[in-house]
Predict the 3D structure of the following.
Amino acid sequence: MKTYILFMGLGISLGLFFLTAPATVTFESKESKTFAEGPVFNRIRFIPGWKRDIWIMAQSHLGLHAEFKNWNKLAIVVDKSQSPTVATFYQLKQDGKMELSTQPLPYKARCFACHADGPRAIRWNHESEAIVPNALESAALTVWNLRIKIYGHVSSQAGTTFQDGEPFRAEQPVYKRPLGIATCERCHSATGLRNALSLEHLGTALFLVRSGYMPPFPFQLTAQERTALELIR
Ligand code: HEC
Ligand code: HEC
């Protein structure tokens, strides 16, 4: 009887969560900054599916109040029917709609430099002066981050190729050199929990290490590894 009531309670809370879950969440990114180190605002929508999930993100480098149809629009399509899971990346036409449009554009940034393993965990600035997600939105972000983590080892791929714009990933061979930090390779490797990291990912790696997110507790970098990471720059 007790278990029954417990499950019913759980069911009701889950149901309420999905009924009231926000469709999109807007926040100030902790990691992304403008060239002048100013805030970058992101609005994310998650569209789960049986075979593929779609992540749409609109991004403003021009402040929170820039007209929404001028926000950059990006998408990641995660194909869960392949093994390993494949994520394809798109730069979309800006139209103010949080949907997958059919008109991809040349990339404005090298997606692979930050997205070594499909969608990235969302980290928002809790002290933002402009916008902080409310309790319900924070709960949605937490659920989305769990989803992102559970994808595990993902292969990031270009969804389109154009002559102009930025390439999806760096073409110079030096960027393909492994990052070569043993503690990180316990999880980030060709056969690991997460995809391998190379020199192309150094910027993101340094941000995550300096902010204390990587390596996750209880793993620790040795003093030598820490020096090596800072010296590769
Ligand atoms: C400078 C690093 C950087 C680059 C370059 C970058 N992203 Fe991201 N992206 C992020 C981070 C970090 C997040 C997670 C949100 C946050 O914490 O701000 C993210 C989130 C996203 C999301 C929302 C789903 C998720 O992963 O959480 C989409 C969609 C996305 N990026 C698409 C792209 C596409 C397409 C490109 C290439 C045109 C790109 N990104 C380039 C850093 C980057
Ligand atoms: C115990 C396993 C583990 C170890 C060890 C680890 N990571 Fe991660 N790393 C993760 C997981 C899980 C994620 C995705 C979720 C997140 O961002 O929190 C991640 C995300 C990342 C990302 C973003 C690309 C991606 O895979 O989503 C980078 C870059 C990264 N880690 C760098 C490092 C570096 C550098 C080290 C070593 C200092 C390290 N990690 C050690 C588990 C690990």
